[in-house]
Amino acid sequence: MLNTTGKSHGCDCHGLEVNIREGPGIPEGYLDLDYGTCGFRGPVDTPPNHLDHVVYRCGVLLAALPFLRNPNGLYNTTDEEDSIEGGAVALMDRPVIAAGVVITASHNPAQDNGIKLLEMDGNILVAEWEKECTALVNFRGPLTVAVCQLLHKYGIGPLRRNRAPYKIFIGHDTRSSSEHLTQLFIEGAKAMADAMKLEGTACVNVGRVTTPTVGFLLNQSMFDATDDQPYIEALKEAFFNSLDLLEQLGHFTPVKKTDPKLPLFYDCAYGVGGCVMFKFFDCLRALGILPHLCNSPQSLEEGGENPLNKECGSNYVLSYKKPPANVVEAGTIYDDKWFCTFDGDADRLAYFSPNKGSVRIVDGVHLLVIKMKFFAFILSRLKEPPSEPIRFGLLINPYANGSARKYIEKMIKEYNTTIAGVKWNLVICRVGIKHMQAKVPNYDVALFYEANGHGNVVFNKKCALFKNPEKCPYKKLIEYIAVMFSSPLGDAMNNSIFIEMALKVMRLTYEDVRQYYDELAYVNLSVRIPTSKRRMFKATAGNDIILEEPKVLQKFIEEETAKVRGARAFVRPSGTESLCRVYAEAPTEEEAQKLAKDIEAYLLSLL
After folding, report:
1. Residue 165 neighbours by CB under 8 Å, 6+ apart
2. Is the pTM of the predicted complex or chain greater than 0.90?
3. Which residue ranges make up each domain of the chain?
């Protein structure tokens, strides 16, 4: 049975008198959710109201989070000088603390939804709090009991009025369920704020925005934002500052008009990217590119079916290695034209060009290579080597094509001998963007990409590249570029306008980039697993492409892979969905297809 949102239950636990509105209860038929790479995700109505309690309880936790982390500094203040009439803690003059949330299921179909939780710097929630969040979401019993136990565990108490300024920024995508779930999250956050007497805590609904937008607002401390306009203005300013400086340095010649022979079509997967990307078209026109929007939510009839990610978008193109269905249906009109394709919340991108039903692809690893070459282009032109060695990290994961990895290793060897003062390193990370982000602090510049197009550049602004930029225009250029990459989550729109600028400056085409290496044939399959059997598939701790269970499946993979010279294959249980992902790579398409299909068949035989 579902509890009503307004119903409250009091609890006297460990000396704490907690009274919190219970919110939606766990629906009948619900199976515990796991915290995935970025949060929770699943069907909205299977069972009915499946995610209502999930987002409500995420609101409860996020409202309390900074106080749980620092109870004595932010909550349990007892000094007389920190108190005001009525016993409230006087923290109003302290800097604002903040966090963020995006209601989205990224590349999943429209009937799914989910929630991503973001830290104050715009990064995803740190791993040590995933367990607390999961436990609260799956807790069966009065919510008040769970909250009371949580507060006691982290030393909160007694409950008192608190005015510490805390803002939670909430954005959502274009799914029909997103506004409803947004309101439930806000209700959960308010319920916890009322229970803990957090008078300075406020939710700011920035509306329908891309996931990277919320990360950008947090990272740049744009705490007065009420929509995505500050993000758009800051990103465009950084882009044009970069372009103007490149012109001054003689690396870019302004164009007087767009070239009709240089169209670029944006496949927005009917997602939120289509609501924003056109606002950056002046950046592309400045490069001579004629941009077009397609598969945009604005083109849909009101009240009609939401085809979000349906036979379109980056996940579809990369998974099936074919153009969106409506591009194929258009016949040859788009043949040899280039598209930039996003996922549903616009944090991933890839490029493709259709030709008679087939497709040429520039994936995330190609994009990493473009950026690698562009930064080498800049760093090789510094007037003098940096005063301290620059640690440049290139982070990829096992989905990176074997040929790409060899090419990157070759370029690193070259750059380490020709570019003074920079040490280039390649790191193979576990699958999932959070594992790449965990390696970022080890480098002054961290350039990371998954093959699926999820990637970013993160700068350590205390390193030598940011010292005395007024004395070196190339350091100033890096300073501008760093602003462009201020969303720690990776940003499809920012990445796209940067990639176009980099290609223009280096006088490269997409086809040039594709010729850097000949990819090994590869196959990506997603195998649906009954939710009740999700937990029979378990990856090895520390290496998520080796199965701990079922052992017979891992043995089968190794035996079949050994039969094909130069092949690789693995099965990876999804962290957010009831499915396993099968990846196979081999010298020929036929060998890769057979290897993937044989593994899929054996996996299904175990169910």
Report:
1. 91, 92, 94, 95, 96, 97, 200
2. yes
3. 8-208, 231-359, 365-514, 521-605
